[in-house]
């Protein structure tokens, strides 16, 4: 067989998605890949049932159905205090994943440098390789996951074309403050770089933290590409609906990438999801409150078990510190991946090894999520009790 692409040999499959496959194989409770095990809002499902008979069943306009782009433009305009043009500044994609990949392909030439905070959502690594970009990693330092401003400026000084900001951050749960975002924005202006944001958890955020849109900060709209998704906000991760919003010139180019990558996102699903995007503000308040209860319940459960963990300010991810386990003789020399595989088999709970998010050699953190109904969280906690018992 002739040699395959070198580029593709430079990254592995997604460890997040791989953990789901292993979890399914062993029938474990899957707290690895982040998606809810409860239903999407009824109004969206009712519309989907209608659409099944009424259509559309053929392609939508490549860039996304008019009504969905209009609804998203209205929602985003309100959020950032500026009118967003649904025709020129919004692109509907197949999930946030395609939004991010299109943004990277639109902005980067091979060899361009892109600043990425570490730990980072693992897609960004493959996005960088496929778009030819060279990541410059800037650590988010635990426990608060702060960054050193001088280190960040040094990264920009190396000639960064763009920075990726995942806010709220997966996997750390960090919510960037307005001041931090203003600082990042000021560097983007000073060094003439784009800011590509990933805001898929914007509505899963816990008081007193609030979401600040980079695109809404003074002077930032023209250099910000906002990537987002309907997956988490409306509990429809399998529908693969995402979007990208940015200045017209950028979106015009992103549309070309999207056109040849996927042609378009599923038309019937766009039509049904549009109902959600038109929900009143109270929907988002209830969503945040629901996840707030889950956070309190799950983190409280981990505390009772004596398991050390982070508590997210936003998103539904928790990093569990497994250092004490790795110090036990039976786990001596183990990687976090081996530990996660063992946990699936012997404890019956799936997590993601933290090393798949870190540039640095971190081996003592694993990621769990709490986007699960109470019964599932109860069962997961009772299984994790077997884990914590090893330390007693
Ligand atoms: N963002 C989710 C996670 O980190 C998964 C998204 C995906 O698999 N496309 O688990």
Question: Key terms for this structure?
Answer:
single chain, 392 residues, alpha/beta, Aspartate Aminotransferase, domain 1, Aspartate Aminotransferase, domain 2, seven-stranded mixed sheet, three-stranded antiparallel sheet, binds glutamine
Q: Give the low-pLDDT segments.
A: none
Q: Quick one: how many beta strands?
A: 12
- In CATH, the topology of the largest domain is named Aspartate Aminotransferase, domain 2
Shape: globular
What is the H/E string?
Answer: HHEHHEHEHEHEHEEEHHHEHHEEEH
By helix and strand content, what is the structural category?
A: alpha/beta
Q: Could you describe the largest sheet, including whether it forms a barrel?
A: 7 strands, mixed
In whole angstroms, the N-to-C terminal distance is: 54 Å
- At the first level of CATH, the class of the largest domain is Alpha Beta
Give the CATH architecture of the largest domain: 3-Layer(aba) Sandwich
* CATH superfamily grouping of the largest domain: Type I PLP-dependent aspartate aminotransferase-like (Major domain)
Domains (count): 2
The chain-level mean pLDDT equals 97
Rg over alpha carbons: 21 Å
